[in-house]
């Protein structure tokens, strides 16, 4: 009977020792409470002895956690209501603070991220929210990191994931983009006309300095027309000829008018 009782005691002690052995992986640390008091350093990784019921262990993961911030109603600085969702990447750098300083640090970080997302994005215009997202992400990260530092949590990154605009605002932005494209097209067309006018002015000056070049342009035009329309005959006339004819007709009309005036004058 004594022999059987010793084996029972040995078996109980063996089970207790086995139960006291805890193995923590590389990415986990164990926060130990001994008789309710916190030990100064976390345990792990590797083999850890926990003497229950004296000791109590709380496992804390040191890996980067992904926290999805649900869609929030944000009123921007220019009074536009949008729905914004984001994602927060954080990790525990001090397991002792993460367990002792805050209850449920994941839930606390989520609530803080939702609050700060509404407040920070509410200080920005809609254009800033759509075009300067990197700056807003950096500001959110800085604010959250400052407030979660006493909890032993490091905010790795904050990314605004989706911005849901109202239907009316989408149409207004589309009209604005279309008007902006039309403005750019008109400016480009005007700049092209200005450059063409400058080039034509330079070409006119060059032709005026070399009169024979005008004849060469006439011959080249005749060649191009003859290649396409063989039945068409073109006689190039200089513009100066028309100017001479116009001045001659004007002088002739002036002389005829003077002669008519003299014929109508009474004699002596």
What does this structure look like?
By secondary structure, this protein is an alpha+beta fold. It folds into 3 domains: 2-61, no CATH class; 65-165, Band 7 domain (Tetrahydropterin Synthase, Chain A); 221-253, no CATH class. The chain is 57% helix and 22% strand. It contains 8 helices and 8 strands. The strands form 3 sheets. A 3-stranded antiparallel sheet has the order 3-2-5. A 3-stranded antiparallel sheet has the order 6-7-8. Strand 2 and strand 3 (37-38) form a beta hairpin. Helix 3 crosses helix 5. The termini are far apart.
Per-chain topology:
Elements lengths: L1 H19 E4 L3 E7 L2 E2 L7 E4 L5 E7 L3 E11 L5 E12 L2 H6 L4 H18 L3 H6 L1 H16 L4 E12 L2 H43 L1 H18 L10 H26 L4
Antiparallel strand pairs: 1-4, 2-3, 2-5, 6-7, 7-8
Helix pairs in contact: 3-5
Spell out the key features of this protein.
268 residues, alpha+beta, Tetrahydropterin Synthase, Chain A, 3-stranded antiparallel sheet, 8 helices, 22% strand
- Provide the low-confidence segments as ranges: none
Distance between the termini: 178 Å
- Portion in helices: 55-70%
| Number of E strands | 8
CATH class of the largest domain: Alpha Beta
H/E series, N to C?
A: HEEEEEEEHHHHEHHH
Number of helices: 8
Strand portion: 15-25%
Number of domains: 3
Q: Which term fits the overall shape?
A: rod-shaped
In angstroms, what is the radius of gyration? 45 Å
Quick gist of this model?
The chain is of the alpha+beta class and 268 residues long. Helices cover 57% and strands 22% of the residues. It has helices at residues 2-20, 95-100, 105-122, 126-131, 133-148, 167-209, 211-228, 239-264; strands at 21-24, 28-34, 37-38, 46-49, 55-61, 65-75, 81-92, 153-164.
């Amino acid at each position: 009977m004594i022999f059987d009782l010793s084996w029972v005691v040995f078996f109980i002690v063996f089970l207790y020792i086995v139960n006291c052995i805890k193995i923590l992986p590389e990415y986990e640390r164990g926060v130990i409470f001994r008789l309710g008091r916190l030990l100064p350093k976390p345990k792990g990784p590797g083999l850890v002895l926990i003497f229950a019921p004296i000791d109590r262990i709380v496992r804390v993961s040191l890996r980067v956690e992904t926290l999805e911030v649900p869609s929030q109603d944000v009123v921007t600085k220019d009074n536009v209501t949008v729905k914004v969702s984001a994602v927060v990447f954080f990790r525990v750098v001090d397991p002792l603070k993460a367990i002792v300083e805050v209850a449920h640090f994941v839930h606390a970080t989520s609530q803080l991220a939702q609050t700060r997302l509404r407040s920070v994005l509410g200080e920005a215009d809609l254009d800033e929210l759509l075009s300067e997202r990197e700056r807003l992400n950096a500001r959110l990260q800085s604010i959250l990191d400052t407030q979660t530092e006493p909890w032993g949590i490091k905010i790795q990154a904050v990314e605004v994931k989706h911005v849901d605009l109202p239907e009316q605002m989408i149409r207004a932005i589309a009209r604005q983009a279309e008007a902006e494209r039309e403005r750019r097209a008109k400016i480009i067309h005007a700049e092209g006309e200005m450059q063409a006018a400058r080039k034509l002015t330079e070409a006119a000056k060059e032709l005026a300095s070399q009169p024979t070049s005008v004849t060469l342009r006439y011959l080249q035009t005749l060649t191009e027309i003859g290649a396409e329309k063989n039945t068409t005959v073109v006689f190039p006339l200089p513009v100066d000829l028309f100017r001479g004819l116009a001045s001659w007709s004007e002088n002739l009309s002036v002389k005829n008018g003077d002669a008519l005036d003299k014929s109508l004058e009474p004699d002596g």
